[in-house]
Every structure is written in C-alpha cells, then in structure tokens.
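Researcher: Let's continue the batch. This sequence belongs to Maleylacetoacetate isomerase, and it's 219 residues. Same format as the previous ones, please.
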Amino acid sequence: MSDAAMGAAMNVVLHDYWRSSAAYRLRIAFNLLGLPYVSRPVDLLAGDQRGADNLARNPQGLVPTVEMDGLTLTQSLAVLEYLNETREAGFLPADVAGRARVRALAYAVAMDIHPVCNLRVARHAVGLGGAATMEGWMQHFIGLGLEGLEGMLMQDMPGQVCHGDRIGLADICLMPQLYNADRWGVALDRFPRIAAIGAHLATIPAFAAAHPDLCKPVA
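Model: Same format as before. Here are the structure tokens for Maleylacetoacetate isomerase:
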C-alpha cells in the first residue's frame, strides 16, 4: 500500500451501532483487510439515526455510514463491493459463475432475511396488533430465511466457508445473521451446514473482534 493509501486508511470513520448487522459486516471487512478505522456510535435506541447530523451524511436515517477516500459511503453491500474493488479484498471469486453464487448467498441474507427482521420493521408489524410478538416474528423469518440458505449451501461447493475455503462476501453477511439467530432463540440444529460454517468463522480473529459484545460502547 502506498504512503498516500496508508494515510487515507488511517482516516476511515465508521458511523455505526454495535448491534447493527450492516455495521457488523463492515467491521468484519475492515478487520479482514487490516484497515484501521475510527468508530463513531449512532445510538439507534435513542433515535440518533433521525438526528440532523446522521441525516446529513445518510439521508435514509440508517447506519452504517463510512467516510473514507474523501467519500461518504452508505449501504453495507455497496461499501463491501467498494472495498473489494479498491483494496483488492478478494471478497468475490475470480470466475463469473462463482461471483454470481456468492452474491446470491450474500443477498439471501442481506436482502431477504435482514430487511424483514430489521427492528423498525418488526416493531411496526408487532405494533399493528394481533397475535404477533417480536420474538415470534424474528424466529419465523430468521428460521425461514436460514432454511432457504441451508438449501442453497447444500447445492454445491463443499468447504469450510460458504464458497469453498476462501472467506468472501457471503461469509461476511452470514455471521451477523447468526448473531441475530442466537439473540432471538433460533436454534441451528436444523441447519448443520450453516452451523458448521458459523463455528469455523467464529475462530477467525477478524470475525471474533467484530462481535457486537466487543464493540458495545462503554457507558
């Protein structure tokens, strides 16, 4: 890495929330790249995401937001692709078929499970009344999503991680979802392939250091 790139790396700022799945993905990615960053917490429970400062950098009122390379970047998958292209991260395979498969696995988590289990969505659904509870909602949709993902993983490419033995985009998306599965009481017994991948990823320092329990702001 050039001196200029090193200097830019030192100026990476991650506006995040410790339990945000999307922010968790980026912490993993930065750790994998050995890219130092400064964390600036945005307290979702306190409503900081709707404050003027956060809306100025992220008009959706979401986290994470990344400031790096003179840019303000939002949407975790877009940031991961940016890192892949600018830092030669290797988050996607070299072959086009492999890239399609890894993206499909990543999207199954980030675009199918995550949005419907986002706290603001789940709270709204439960707030509409009826028999729905937060735990029931989360358990239903996380379980349903992981069932589909397990089937996708069983179709092809055995290995230690989602696509062979090289950590990639799908693994970065999977680990935060497994944290949420554990948080909401979704057992992984029915998903042996996912459970095995998760157990392996948990042993990798870049994943372990990004765990929410280690990133929770000190009160």
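Researcher: Any comment?
Model: The chain is about 55% helix and 5% strand.
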